[in-house]
């Protein structure tokens, strides 16, 4: 096949005939313009030019090849004739680059809050807004953190804690930490390698990674980056088109994924106002990971635009269907009540995640750790506890090994950590994630010795005092480190005079 010159591509730079170059290939996206969730404006900006640099951070590599009809794949561009869009370096970007160069060394990072502080300083404003935002008044995201401060340890003494072991199993799979990497979307917004930072670090250290549906890297790219025997789970947003979902799930199982975490708390994505105010989609485009959908909100931030395919009709009646299409253990991610925990058990799934989506969905929803106590009591009515056939996980607000130990003592099998690991690679790449693992190990060793638990199995409810967990007002100590990185919401701003 003959190469296409950049001059030929440049002749197709209008809404009536729009060609772009992505990774050295030419695509006719004319008919796709009205359907692009980021609006046609961003594509037209690159019409007739190389759009790879704008495309990469917010699309899986195979998005365009998967979702654009084959007859719109026009061929390869002649690399000697490519005209790239000249990128203007703004004063803001120069300042950001200076901050990147002035980052503290990894040796100076002593806790997970440090990663967040560095990420907040060096991330582009729109990326930080997407990652850090939560719904409405952001009460729940703050409560996720505060809830752990209302639980107090009751340490045991005079036990031989010369050796402590924090390894465990999660859904029968070995894990070097009682922590798994929870799914977070669009990793390339914060680092060119995106989710691959997590995959490579997790493979090196025996930590389990949950692969997000809305990753910047493709599913196969992430799986291909794993080392032999590395355990990975899949987080699933359910598509309106069940055939797409079926193919995706069965492909994941064939590739060796060991658990399916179905997100059940997002029939519609929450209003994340920091993200919405950035008008991210209007200016910079956004990932479209599955099917083209009309009626997409294009002025309410990246979260709304990337979620247009999610099926709000998902219900309990779909659980038997999921069990029929896969042999992977199924976990429902986003359970919040004892009633739904019991229904999940009765429907025969393998477990649940007590989660409020990192505070990004229903604001003033209770924290997962608070719900854990009532859920465990309810599950005890179904048989012996712990139950090897049904595991309970918690995520949201975890920044310390002490948080992990509190959750396990109250009945969680393990915990999910999302933002903290994401901020670690945004700040320092793969090495940042590895340092985050080391921080957890150091804190686990210290805290397990101090509370007198030599293994994860020795963490029991009598080691914690959770009697104040339901008190949402009172003298909870101020979490200074968290409050330092938390960015308060802002109101609408007046236009500045030119």
Automatic annotation (TrEMBL):
A molecular-function term among this protein's GO annotations: L-lactate dehydrogenase (cytochrome) activity
Entry keyword set: Flavoprotein, FMN, Heme, Iron, Metal-binding, Mitochondrion, Oxidoreductase
Essential cofactor(s): FMN; heme b
Stretches assigned to the Cytochrome b5 heme-binding domain: 1-78
GO CC annotation, single: mitochondrial intermembrane space
Short name of one Pfam family: FMN_dh
Main location: mitochondrion
Location in the cell: Mitochondrion intermembrane space
Reaction(s) catalysed by this chain's protein: (S)-lactate + 2 Fe(III)-[cytochrome c] = 2 Fe(II)-[cytochrome c] + pyruvate + 2 H(+)
EC number: 1.1.2.3
Domain FMN hydroxy acid dehydrogenase span(s) in chain numbering: 104-469
Summary of subunit composition and partner proteins: Homotetramer.
Sequence similarity: Belongs to the cytochrome b5 family.
UniProt-recorded name of the protein: L-lactate dehydrogenase (cytochrome)
Annotated organism of origin: Paxillus rubicundulus Ve08.2h10
């Amino acid at each position: 096949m003959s190469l296409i010159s950049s001059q030929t591509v440049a002749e197709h730079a209008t809404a009536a005939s729009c060609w772009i170059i992505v990774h050295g290939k030419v695509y006719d996206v004319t008919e796709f313009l009205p359907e692009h969730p980021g609006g046609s404006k961003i594509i037209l900006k690159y019409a007739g030019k190389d759009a790879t640099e704008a495309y990469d951070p917010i699309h899986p590599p195979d998005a365009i090849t998967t979702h654009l009809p084959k007859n719109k794949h026009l061929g390869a561009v002649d690399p000697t004739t490519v005209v790239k869009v000249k990128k203007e370096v703004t004063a803001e970007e120069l300042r950001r680059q200076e901050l990147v160069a002035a980052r503290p060394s990894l040796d100076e990072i002593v806790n997970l809050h440090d990663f967040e502080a560095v990420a907040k300083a060096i991330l582009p404003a729109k990326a930080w807004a997407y990652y850090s935002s939560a719904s409405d008044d952001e009460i729940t995201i703050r409560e996720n953190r505060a809830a752990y401060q209302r639980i107090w340890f009751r340490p045991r003494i005079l036990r031989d804690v010369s050796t402590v072991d924090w390894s465990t199993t999660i859904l029968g799979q070995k894990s070097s930490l009682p922590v798994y990497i929870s799914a977070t979307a669009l990793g390339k917004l914060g680092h060119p390698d995106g989710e691959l930072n997590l995959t490579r670090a997790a493979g090196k250290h025996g930590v389990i990674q949950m692969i997000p549906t809305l990753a910047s890297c493709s599913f196969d790219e992430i799986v291909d980056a794993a080392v032999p025997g590395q355990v990975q789970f899949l987080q699933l947003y359910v598509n309106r088109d069940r055939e797409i979902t079926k193919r995706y799930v069965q492909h994941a199982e064939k590739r060796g994924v060991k658990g399916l975490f179905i997100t059940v708390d997002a029939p519609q994505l929450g209003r994340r106002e920091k993200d919405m105010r950035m008008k991210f989609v209007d200016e910079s485009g956004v990932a479209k990971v599955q099917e083209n959908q009309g009626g997409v909100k294009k002025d309410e931030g990246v979260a709304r635009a990337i979620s247009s395919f999610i099926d709000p009709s998902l219900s309990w009646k779909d659980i038997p269907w999921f069990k029929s299409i896969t042999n992977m253990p199924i976990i429902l991610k986003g359970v919040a009540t004892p009633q739904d925990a019991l229904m999940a058990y009765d429907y025969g799934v393998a477990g649940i995640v007590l989660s409020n989506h990192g505070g990004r969905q229903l604001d003033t929803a209770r924290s997962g750790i608070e719900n854990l106590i009532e859920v465990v009591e309810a599950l005890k009515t179904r048989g012996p506890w712990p139950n090897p056939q049904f595991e309970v996980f918690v995520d949201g607000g975890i920044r310390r090994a002490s948080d992990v130990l509190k959750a396990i003592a109250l009945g969680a099998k393990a915990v999910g950590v999302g933002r903290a690991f994401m901020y670690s690679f945004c700040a320092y790449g793969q090495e940042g994630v590895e340092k985050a693992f080391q921080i957890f190990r150091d804190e686990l060793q210290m805290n397990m010795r101090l509370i007198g638990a030599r293994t994860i199995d020795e963490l029991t409810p009598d080691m914690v005092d959770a009697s104040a967990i339901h008190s949402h007002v009172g003298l909870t100590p101020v979490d200074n480190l968290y409050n330092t990185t938390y960015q308060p919401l802002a109101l609408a701003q007046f236009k500045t005079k030119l």
